[in-house]
User: Fold this.
Amino acid sequence: ISTQDLAGRRVVITAGPTREALDPVRYLSNHSSGKMGYALAAACAARGAQVTLVSGPVALATPPGVARVDVLSACEMLAAVEAALPCELFIGCAAVADYRAASVAEHKLKKGDDTSGMTLELVRNPDIVATVAARSERPFCVGFAAETQALETHAGDKLSRKRLDLIVANDVSQAGLGFGSDDNAATLLWREADAVRRQALPPQPKTALATAILDHLVTRLP
Ligand code: PMT
Assistant:
């Protein structure tokens, strides 16, 4: 029997990739499998939380006791997150596409006469975790940072810019960790008395890492 230290807490988690349509048959996306976000959702539910998991397209089973909402695009993910609020804890683990096509072609795009290439026009997607953190009645907001260089510098920037309470920085350039794999490693970064504090979590299965992240979070939730 696990500790029920999240009993009665409402938690909203995003997981997986988003898929941004270009035309009826093509899209822009990324390699997120959803494993990290689903491990967090399972761990929260096992500790007694009421969990809504807003999921991009993944090939994973819904963890027991979790309410799952399936979405495709970043705009759909934001709408589903806003519909699931209010909550006390929000965790943005999804790999959300920063851009989408300026317009989605109604029919399959055809190769044009220009044999040298083609240019796609993209527009910025809304930032889901920053939108949640900017609300007046905001939950405790946790983001992830997927970086391939200067991990803590870039993650620290995201912590401040998105006004998060905690960021989980993971180096996604390391083989066997991060996108798609069963294991991950992370550094937790947060602000305390005007200084950035850190806690390193070594490589381990995503299920164990989810528990370690929650062990930190339960000490900090209001
Ligand atoms: O799904 P897995 O295969 O298990 O892999 C796990 C993971 C590597 C995807 C996960 O651990 C992770 O790092 N998730 C965040 C990936 C990401 O998009 O990072 P980012 O540094 O681009 O974004 C920073 C934060 O802003 C994230 O919390 C992200 O969810 C959020 N974001 C980004 C863009 C956007 N438009 N809206 C957002 O909310």
About this structure: The chain has one domain: 10-101+117-220. The radius of gyration is 18 Å.
